[in-house]
Amino acid sequence: MGFQIPQFEPNAFVSGDTVLWTKVLATYPLSDGWTLNYRLVGDTQSIDTAKITVAADTGLGGWDVTITATNSAGLAPGVYRLIGWVLLPATGERHIVFDDTLQVLADVTTGTPASLQSPNKQILIAIDARLSGRITADQEQVHINGTSIMRIPIEKLMAIRGIYAAKVWREQNAGQAFPSVATRMTKPQPIDADDNDSFWSVP
Asked: What is the pTM for the complete model shown?
């Protein structure tokens, strides 16, 4: 089976890749004169409507959307906001039909080893950096479910770390059963507040 163009907006793509999707809107049909537009916006970079091709797809009754490799090239890795709207030129009526974040990943041909880590691994590294107080400016831009890592309380971040550590383990150990932890009854020991590893262990 050949490549199937998705009928929904991407939640991630690689910088320098060609990005394709289709969009069908029963409420705002192409046949009634509606046009579809998108804009991709990051903290310092964007792809405006002139660089996102939206062409009529008469077979589906919607639109074929393309971000060319040339237009996606050079986008810095990070979280971007993709906004889509329809416009009826005859009246000027406009409606937002899509508004969500997506992840732009490093160009596989030019990215550094660190930037080519999986998104889960990059988030885990950023969490560890924040918990250890050694977070970089780039890592401060990391978002988890749309929330900046700098806005997540430390106590919640510790719990989130376990989730991402498990995701990374599964990525690196595909097909293997997740290790179980044997429980042993021992005399309680005082917790060393400086021993961060005691909080970061993954079950």
From this structure: 0.62
